[in-house]
Request: fold
Amino acid sequence: MKKYFAMIAVAMLATLTVKAQSDEPKNEIGVYYGVASASDIISTYASVLTFSSDDQTGFWGPVGIEYFYHVNPVIGIGAVASIAGCKYEYSRHTGTDVKANYYTVMPAVKFNWLRRNHFGLYSELAAGVIFMQTKINGQKPQDVEEDSATDFMWQATALGVEFGSAFRGFCELGVGEKGILCAGVRYKF
Reply:
Protein backbone atom coordinates (compact mmCIF):
# COMPACT_ATOMS: atom_id res chain seq x y z
CA MET A 1 0.00 0.00 0.00
CA LYS A 2 2.87 2.41 0.82
CA LYS A 3 4.35 1.71 -2.60
CA TYR A 4 1.12 2.78 -4.30
CA PHE A 5 0.99 6.04 -2.33
CA ALA A 6 4.64 6.68 -3.16
CA MET A 7 3.99 6.01 -6.88
CA ILE A 8 0.96 8.33 -6.85
CA ALA A 9 2.98 11.05 -5.08
CA VAL A 10 5.81 10.72 -7.62
CA ALA A 11 3.33 10.84 -10.52
CA MET A 12 1.70 13.99 -9.07
CA LEU A 13 5.09 15.67 -8.64
CA ALA A 14 6.05 14.73 -12.20
CA THR A 15 2.87 16.28 -13.61
CA LEU A 16 3.45 19.43 -11.55
CA THR A 17 6.98 19.67 -12.96
CA VAL A 18 5.73 19.19 -16.52
CA LYS A 19 3.02 21.81 -15.93
CA ALA A 20 5.57 24.25 -14.49
CA GLN A 21 7.87 23.76 -17.49
CA SER A 22 5.05 24.28 -19.96
CA ASP A 23 4.20 27.60 -18.26
CA GLU A 24 7.75 28.90 -18.73
CA PRO A 25 8.09 31.66 -21.31
CA LYS A 26 9.30 30.28 -24.63
CA ASN A 27 10.08 33.59 -26.37
CA GLU A 28 12.57 36.27 -25.55
CA ILE A 29 13.49 39.51 -27.26
CA GLY A 30 16.39 41.74 -26.28
CA VAL A 31 18.47 44.79 -27.16
CA TYR A 32 22.19 45.16 -26.54
CA TYR A 33 25.34 47.22 -27.02
CA GLY A 34 28.74 45.64 -27.61
CA VAL A 35 32.36 46.71 -27.16
CA ALA A 36 35.34 45.61 -29.31
CA SER A 37 33.27 43.93 -32.01
CA ALA A 38 34.66 42.34 -35.16
CA SER A 39 33.60 45.34 -37.29
CA ASP A 40 35.42 47.66 -34.85
CA ILE A 41 38.57 45.56 -35.21
CA ILE A 42 38.19 45.51 -39.03
CA SER A 43 37.78 49.31 -39.20
CA THR A 44 40.76 49.90 -36.88
CA TYR A 45 42.93 47.53 -38.92
CA ALA A 46 41.89 49.24 -42.18
CA SER A 47 42.66 52.65 -40.68
CA VAL A 48 46.14 51.60 -39.58
CA LEU A 49 46.95 50.08 -42.99
CA THR A 50 45.52 52.92 -45.04
CA PHE A 51 46.39 56.07 -43.11
CA SER A 52 48.88 57.23 -40.51
CA SER A 53 48.31 56.39 -36.86
CA ASP A 54 47.74 59.98 -35.70
CA ASP A 55 44.45 60.36 -37.59
CA GLN A 56 41.22 60.71 -35.66
CA THR A 57 39.05 57.59 -35.52
CA GLY A 58 35.56 57.22 -34.05
CA PHE A 59 33.57 54.02 -33.74
CA TRP A 60 30.11 53.27 -32.33
CA GLY A 61 28.25 50.03 -31.92
CA PRO A 62 27.27 47.41 -32.38
CA VAL A 63 23.74 48.23 -31.29
CA GLY A 64 21.53 45.23 -31.84
CA ILE A 65 18.37 43.26 -31.30
CA GLU A 66 17.97 39.53 -30.74
CA TYR A 67 15.10 37.05 -30.63
CA PHE A 68 15.07 33.46 -29.35
CA TYR A 69 12.41 30.76 -29.22
CA HIS A 70 13.12 28.05 -26.65
CA VAL A 71 12.36 24.62 -28.13
CA ASN A 72 13.14 23.16 -24.69
CA PRO A 73 14.56 24.53 -21.41
CA VAL A 74 18.16 24.14 -22.64
CA ILE A 75 18.13 25.15 -26.32
CA GLY A 76 16.85 28.34 -27.91
CA ILE A 77 16.96 29.14 -31.63
CA GLY A 78 16.65 32.61 -33.09
CA ALA A 79 18.45 35.49 -34.78
CA VAL A 80 20.69 38.44 -33.99
CA ALA A 81 20.80 41.72 -35.94
CA SER A 82 23.07 44.71 -35.34
CA ILE A 83 24.28 47.98 -36.78
CA ALA A 84 27.64 49.66 -36.18
CA GLY A 85 29.52 52.55 -37.74
CA CYS A 86 32.78 54.43 -37.81
CA LYS A 87 34.13 57.73 -39.05
CA TYR A 88 37.71 58.67 -39.82
CA GLU A 89 38.63 62.32 -40.23
CA TYR A 90 41.82 62.88 -42.19
CA SER A 91 41.52 66.63 -42.70
CA ARG A 92 44.93 67.32 -41.16
CA HIS A 93 46.66 65.32 -43.91
CA THR A 94 44.48 65.07 -47.00
CA GLY A 95 41.16 66.77 -46.29
CA THR A 96 39.47 63.38 -46.64
CA ASP A 97 37.01 61.69 -44.32
CA VAL A 98 35.66 58.15 -44.43
CA LYS A 99 32.32 56.91 -43.08
CA ALA A 100 31.52 53.21 -42.84
CA ASN A 101 28.36 51.43 -41.69
CA TYR A 102 28.11 47.74 -40.83
CA TYR A 103 24.78 45.84 -40.86
CA THR A 104 24.78 42.26 -39.56
CA VAL A 105 22.13 39.51 -39.59
CA MET A 106 22.89 36.09 -38.06
CA PRO A 107 20.83 33.00 -37.16
CA ALA A 108 21.77 31.91 -33.62
CA VAL A 109 21.57 29.09 -31.09
CA LYS A 110 21.54 29.65 -27.33
CA PHE A 111 22.49 26.95 -24.78
CA ASN A 112 21.20 27.53 -21.24
CA TRP A 113 23.59 25.89 -18.76
CA LEU A 114 21.90 27.08 -15.59
CA ARG A 115 18.29 28.26 -15.28
CA ARG A 116 16.89 29.68 -12.08
CA ASN A 117 13.93 31.98 -11.51
CA HIS A 118 16.05 35.13 -11.33
CA PHE A 119 19.46 34.02 -12.65
CA GLY A 120 20.88 32.10 -15.61
CA LEU A 121 24.13 31.14 -17.34
CA TYR A 122 24.33 30.44 -21.07
CA SER A 123 26.50 30.28 -24.19
CA GLU A 124 25.58 31.35 -27.71
CA LEU A 125 26.73 30.68 -31.28
CA ALA A 126 25.72 32.72 -34.32
CA ALA A 127 26.84 32.92 -37.95
CA GLY A 128 25.55 34.99 -40.83
CA VAL A 129 26.39 37.94 -43.07
CA ILE A 130 27.65 41.47 -42.64
CA PHE A 131 26.84 44.22 -45.15
CA MET A 132 29.49 46.97 -45.24
CA GLN A 133 28.94 50.40 -46.81
CA THR A 134 31.79 52.89 -47.15
CA LYS A 135 31.69 56.52 -48.29
CA ILE A 136 34.89 58.51 -48.85
CA ASN A 137 34.57 62.31 -49.09
CA GLY A 138 37.55 64.09 -50.66
CA GLN A 139 38.54 67.74 -50.62
CA LYS A 140 36.26 68.52 -53.56
CA PRO A 141 32.56 67.58 -53.95
CA GLN A 142 33.37 65.48 -57.04
CA ASP A 143 35.88 63.40 -55.00
CA VAL A 144 33.15 61.22 -53.42
CA GLU A 145 33.56 57.46 -53.61
CA GLU A 146 31.08 54.86 -52.38
CA ASP A 147 31.66 51.15 -51.98
CA SER A 148 29.83 48.21 -50.46
CA ALA A 149 30.66 44.60 -49.67
CA THR A 150 29.06 41.53 -48.13
CA ASP A 151 31.01 39.04 -46.04
CA PHE A 152 30.68 36.23 -43.51
CA MET A 153 30.26 37.21 -39.83
CA TRP A 154 29.93 35.23 -36.60
CA GLN A 155 29.64 35.45 -32.82
CA ALA A 156 30.77 32.96 -30.16
CA THR A 157 29.65 33.86 -26.65
CA ALA A 158 31.57 31.73 -24.16
CA LEU A 159 29.70 32.94 -21.08
CA GLY A 160 26.50 34.90 -20.70
CA VAL A 161 24.95 35.89 -17.38
CA GLU A 162 21.33 37.03 -17.05
CA PHE A 163 19.48 38.26 -13.98
CA GLY A 164 15.93 39.36 -13.27
CA SER A 165 12.48 37.86 -13.87
CA ALA A 166 10.42 38.63 -17.01
CA PHE A 167 12.66 41.64 -17.74
CA ARG A 168 16.27 40.49 -17.49
CA GLY A 169 19.58 42.28 -17.68
CA PHE A 170 22.42 40.39 -19.28
CA CYS A 171 26.17 40.58 -19.85
CA GLU A 172 28.20 38.41 -22.24
CA LEU A 173 31.87 37.60 -22.83
CA GLY A 174 32.72 36.35 -26.28
CA VAL A 175 34.22 37.18 -29.65
CA GLY A 176 32.61 38.28 -32.91
CA GLU A 177 30.16 40.95 -34.03
CA LYS A 178 28.39 41.37 -30.67
CA GLY A 179 31.79 42.23 -29.21
CA ILE A 180 34.16 40.94 -26.58
CA LEU A 181 31.87 42.46 -23.95
CA CYS A 182 28.16 42.88 -24.60
CA ALA A 183 25.38 44.04 -22.27
CA GLY A 184 21.67 44.68 -22.59
CA VAL A 185 18.14 43.86 -21.50
CA ARG A 186 15.67 41.21 -22.66
CA TYR A 187 12.04 40.40 -22.09
CA LYS A 188 10.77 36.82 -21.77
CA PHE A 189 7.17 36.09 -22.77
About this structure: Confidence is low (pLDDT under 50) at residues 15-20.
